Amino acid sequence: MTGPRLADVSGQAVAAGVGAAVVGYAGSVAVVVAGLTAVGASPGQVATALLALGVGLGVTSVLLSATTRVPVAVVWSTPGLALLVGLGEVPGGLPGAVGALVAVGVALTLTGLVPALPRLLARLPAALTSAVLAGVLLPFCLTSATVLEDRPLEGAVLWVAWLAALRWAPRFAGPAVLAALLVVVAAGGGLGVAGGLALPVPEVVVPTFSVAALLQVALPVYLVTMAAQNLVGAAVLASYGYRPPVGAALVTTGAASALLAPLLAPTSNLAAITGALTAGPEASPDPARRWVAAASAGVAHVVLGLLAPVAAVVVTRAPADLVTAAAGLALLTTFAASTAAAVRDEGERLPSALVLLVTASGASVLGLGSAPLALLGGLVVRELLRRRRPRTPPGRHAAPRQE
């Protein structure tokens, strides 16, 4: 595969990437703050973590996307941070939590060196991976409608911007929604930020390691990061026809996570929602040029990291439902395309519908998130349906099945 080309860069791809980074940051930076605070981080350490996280996400996104020419978007592990919120105090305190995050990064790196994993993911049926993507996107798209009930004026501004762009500049419908969101937040006073733009002084936490922290923190964070983030992120890329560089992504993000953990940077992984924004046709009509969108998202993450204290204040002032609604509108065409791909083949229709609905439900069983649970259930139903289909004797035609 050839290297990156300057000719691949376009305003559409850059706008899509920057929009994806801002939407992703705004949608879950509060989880980062809550997760780190729950394990004992001070405000200064949280600012350090946001700085390190932004730089780490940016460098890995640019590196992976530019070298593979696949739109590999890297984000933090939101499920992993949610676990930290639920766990609260970690064995060994803050140094114990850092040691657990270092262990997660090392485990992800070692997982990336297993050659069978990319081959296994490549064998997943395209209809089911498309259904996973559709299920992940459905709650976002629904919020774009329900926001009109809760915030009719602000929601209408988003819809008008999206419809106008869809009519006159469809390639920029996503960025138009983001611009409308910023206007709404600014009108409500959400862009007024007190304080300076000084970078936070890095605070390093020396990790400690204990069996208790490894079992209570590292193991569950590793499992949810692999199942709920990396697996879904790879499925998103596969649904757009890419061959996900799973091994390289795991090695790169795992190493970055381990190295940046003493700065309290959370674990990083392949993106799902941000991945859909940068890998779909909204980023570029040419799939070979969409890597620019993921790389642009990486650059935007670096900027957000450098503005960590300010960025955290700005994005947390944006109403969460408006951020979700904006993402839903930007992803509506992607949802339509992935749903169509999931149900196109009649033989895959029922298992794909199951995967879509279970993924969208957000259900969790025995710690297994909805996306991997849905994919596992879809594969089981698919195999059962294939086994029960009667074979037609030679010279005879099977009777039509009554629905």
Question: How would you explain this protein's 3D organization?
Answer:
The chain is mainly α and 403 residues long. The protein has a domain at 9-149 and 189-320. The protein is built from 17 helices and two strands. It has helices at 11-38, 43-68, 78-87, 93-112, 116-122, 126-150, 152-168, 173-187, 211-239, 246-260, 273-279, 291-306, 308-317, 320-330, 332-343, 349-361, 370-388, and strands at residues 74-76, 268-270. It has a two-stranded antiparallel sheet with strand order 1-2. Helix 1 runs parallel beside helix 3 (78-87). The protein is globular and about 55 Å long.
Labels describing this entry:
single chain, 403 residues, mainly alpha, 17 helices, 69% helix, 1% strand, transmembrane helix
Average pLDDT value?
Answer: 83
Rg over alpha carbons: 21 Å
Sheet having the most strands: 2 strands, antiparallel
**Unreliable parts:** 397-403
Strands of the biggest beta sheet: in what spatial order? 1-2
Alpha-beta classification: mainly alpha
Q: How far is it from the N-terminal to the C-terminal residue, by CA?
A: 47 Å
Task: Provide a count of the helices.
Answer: 17
